[in-house]
Write a structure and sequence with these properties.
alpha/beta, TIM Barrel, two-stranded antiparallel sheet
Length: 329
């Protein structure tokens, strides 16, 4: 396993982070066995994955509670990242939300406490003040953000030390390369990547956009005619599936699965601290580990960039995968 420092802290996190949203089950993920989830946490730790990402908003804290149970007796081996919801960014609400997350996770300290989405109706100074209070009390070790574009990230960096920005980033979602990634690099803010496999597209499991489940075909990759889409844009279906064919060809030439190549690419991008992968059963933890051993040559990286350039152009500069106008600024 490879490890990186979390921003300018002394916290070492694995290059692969386990995304724990699936543990929540419920309306998004369907039935999920708690026993399987706990066993998956143990399998991740045994594989050297020490970084676990969850949120209070995942089925009203259920994901946090399951993760807390999974880490019983092994808390010292884990780095926990959780998130405060945008509806809880007033000072008192931040404090209360953190206390509830600590209870859910069965821990005294959250290693990385992240703002899940911006809330432009609450002064950032108020939220930061509460976060710094929690930090002084030892209830959180480091402050991070998620889904913060350049304007909001710049603003919060004027107020406090933010160590990470969690953003969507993949071969099929290179939007942050325009301005968010350069700012993160310049200010030593680590990028935590979510959806590094573009919600399954980069595994090669879908032959066309029509094969993608409605619940996933909501991003701006897809046409606004998709049943659950609400972005109101033409999307980039033609460009996406043309790029996937090219990525598959490159992966085949390397004798590697598409997913391994896609994750190796993200691993080698500047500023990336860790990328999130999901697993619902212990055996699924091992699926993405080979990407850590795969080092792509500069020529292969350049070719992957070339074949996904039209997707990048089609998606434009909005870093929000789902909505237009953007909820990130």
């Amino acid at each position: 396993m490879q490890y990186h420092k979390l921003g300018n802290t002394d916290i070492d996190v694995s290059a692969i982070a386990l995304g724990c949203w699936p543990f929540a089950g419920g309306k998004v993920w369907g039935d999920q066995s708690e026993e399987d989830s706990v066993a998956t946490v143990h399998a991740a730790l045994d594989a050297g994955i020490n970084f676990f990402d969850t949120a209070e908003g995942y089925e009203a804290g259920h994901s946090e509670r399951v993760l807390g149970k999974g880490l019983t007796g092994r808390r010292q081996d884990a780095v926990i990242a959780t998130k405060v919801s945008p509806s809880h960014l007033a000072a008192g609400d931040v404090i209360a939300a953190c206390e509830q997350s600590l209870h859910n996770l069965q821990t005294d300290t959250i290693d990385l406490y992240q703002i899940h989405w911006p809330n432009w109706n609450v002064p950032l100074e108020e939220t930061v003040g509460a976060l710094e209070t929690l930090q002084r009390q030892g209830k959180i070790r480091a402050i991070g953000v998620c889904n913060f574009g350049v304007q909001d990230l710049s603003a919060i960096l004027e107020l406090t030390d933010v160590v990470t920005d969690q953003m969507p980033f993949s071969l099929l979602w290179r939007v942050i390369e325009r301005d968010v990634q350069p700012l993160c690099i310049a200010r030593n803010v680590g990028i935590i990547c979510y959806s590094p496999l573009a919600q399954g597209l980069l595994t090669g499991r879908y032959a066309s956009a029509d094969d993608v489940p409605e619940g996933l075909a909501r991003t701006r990759h897809y046409a606004d005619s998709r049943p659950q889409s609400s972005h109101g844009e033409a999307g980039g279906e033609v460009e996406v599936f043309a790029a996937l064919a090219d990525i598959r060809q490159i992966a085949d030439s390397l004798g590697q699965p598409m997913a391994a190549v896609a994750l190796a690419w993200i691993k080698q991008q500047a500023g990336v601290t860790s990328f999130l992968v999901g697993a619902r059963k212990p055996e699924e933890v091992a699926w993405n580990l080979p990407a850590l051993e795969l080092e792509l040559s500069a020529d292969v990286v350049a070719e992957l960039n070339r074949v996904t350039e039209l997707v990048k152009r089609a998606l434009g500069g909005n870093p929000d995968m789902w909505m237009s106008p953007s909820r990130m600024r």
